[in-house]
Amino acid sequence: MHWANGWFLGMHLVWWVVWIVIIAALFSFTTPVPKGRAGSPLETLQRRYARGEIGTAEYEERKSRLLQDRATD
Fold first, then answer.
1. pLDDT by residue for the chain (73 residues), tens digit each?
2. Distance CA 60, CA 70 (A)
């Protein structure tokens, strides 16, 4: 038998791997990626303030600037 030396088994395994990679790629391209919690710039600012990443003065300054930008739009 010509496939008894392991060549047939090796190629069979390679084709299984190829098909698994193709199927995994199809699923990865068709499933939506969650966008996360981006939200508006004001919501991001509020979250940063709540986590303590920025102080009160910086929060108030950036908030007023964001609200001014909204008013001019």
1. 455 566 666 677 888 899 999 999 988 887 776 666 667 889 999 999 999 999 999 999 999 999 888 777 6
2. 15
